[in-house]
Amino acid sequence: MVFLPSATSATSAADVGLKRRHVDYSRYLSAEARSRLPNPIKSIWKVAQVKPGTINMGNGDPHHTLYPISEVNFVVPSINEHDPVQSWRSGTGEQNIISSYKDEPCALSLRTAFAYGAGAGLKDVRDALADLNDRIHSPPNHTVSLSLGNADALTKCFRLLGDPGDSFLCEEFTFSAMTNAALPLGIEWVPIRMDNNGLVPSDLERILSNWDEAKQGKRPHVLYTIPCSQNPTGSTLSLERRQQIYQIAHDWDIIILEDDPYFFLQYDLGVSQSTIQQYGHTRAMAEVLPRSFLSMDYDGRVMRLDSFSKIVAPGMRLGWVTSNSYFADKLDMLTDSSSQHPHGMGQAFVAELLGSNGWGVDGFMKWILSLCNEYQRRRDLFMDVFRQKVATSGFATAEVPQSGMFVWIKINLEHHARYSASQTPTVPGGPTTNTADLMDELFRKLLNNGLVMMPASTFAIADRTGTMGSHINDRVNFFRATFVGTDETIRNGLATFGRTLEEFFL
Length: 506
Hints:
It contains 18 helices and 15 strands. It is α/β, with parallel strands linked by helices and 506 residues long. Strand 8 (222-225), helix 11 and strand 9 form a beta-alpha-beta unit. It starts with 12 loop residues before the first helix and ends with a helix.
């Protein structure tokens, strides 16, 4: 199943090309990005790739005959197993060996993979991922560039789009490792209120419509969001909210950075077995996976970031960015003059895995479905143990996440004897409760008892506009917990959590 703009949309398919031809994407760029020149050596290298047989005496590449490696074998699970993840975990399933060679035919020769390349990555890998994108998102007219994972991609997007003094939008609780990366660039964050279902579109609209450029500087032109299993809250945006947010972004001319590393880890999917049998796993999964912002992006304002970190292995440090071709070229220029192209070993593995001698795209999606089933089992175990060991006290509650790896646990501090909701703020607009102090105390008590959960304060984005109505520190009564560990870790961790809560409250 593919996703295309609705037939009722004001923008018809015939209008899309016309709209895109008239969009001046350069106005979104930072001064750094506008002034950056292409790497001249890489520019010549790209021209040399166009004509087969060109004699290249310009580059400083070591010759492939001197590479001290001629073959790489990857031992992977057989995708022919009914449940490949369970068979792989238990050691009962078959294994396959997929190979990359320097001097024999394969999906991506090591001669190419281990040589210098373009910042966007090797064409074979980009084409394979573009094919996957087309099957899942059907993005209109977008370009795929490789990255060293989403952290690398995001920091480059911040440099691409942000100048000192700019304000970017984000959820009020978000992945602080990434938002912190923008701070040295002089970018300030404007938080958007959230509820159990994620970012609240009406609050996004409120912020933009009430923005006073005379007092607050330039109106934000970038929204950074994690739509699936939002980190840390675990919430997943509904289709209705995604459509509302995209429309607001269109109306206010906002670029959306769609950071979606948990997109493929969805639960309670109800995948159609008949669709699998008739059309394969890719189509069956595309029918039930959430609709991305990318799939709605008829005017090129989405930069989508995907990663292999959560679905293959985090140490691969390989991901892909999907955007309009103009942003892709600028991203390529930045990479050519900074980190250079992603590592050849990872690109070779992906090319072979998705190629005809590996799993192929459909086999890859079968692995994803099997992976979802295993993580869903762990999520369900977590929630069952939570109900038994924690929820019965009434001191903590949690929503069941639809995707990802995290449970957002609310601590009901109103039941604590020392909780105060009427403190005098030490600064105008400051917190009026002692929530932050009590949560810090609880965090330390958990740590002393041998348990680590991430406190909400780690992810909180302070409001500098003074318009949110309450201080973020009054809403940090949450912990982020992961359910992706072993069954023993889940049982022992939640037992410790329940005991510590009772010690803290009683």
